[in-house]
User: Fold this.
Amino acid sequence: MKQRKYPLAVCIVSVMFLLIGSQPLSAAEKIVKMVVAMECGCPETVNRAGSAVKDIPGVLDYDVNGFTREVTVKFDDAKTNVEKIVEGLTQRYFPIEGEPEIIK
Assistant:
């Protein structure tokens, strides 16, 4: 059997890539959860709310829960903020009920 020259180095580098890859790339990422006023929690309304969130510049990821009527948004704090997200949703007929909760 042929012995490899650098098996330990390959293992170390692989582990480093795994660890680095699991960390967030930007320290400016934040997550906010808010309850939106939806006339119902049907799939069409949930999709329209998702479209409204997705179209806001700086939004990285989102989840719309039709049952609880909560929208969770992951966004780049350098490109947008909670106020702009609330404004964007309100302009698309999804006003926020109560205060947004910043999770991270």
In short: Confidence is low (pLDDT under 50) at residues 8-23. The radius of gyration is 20 Å.
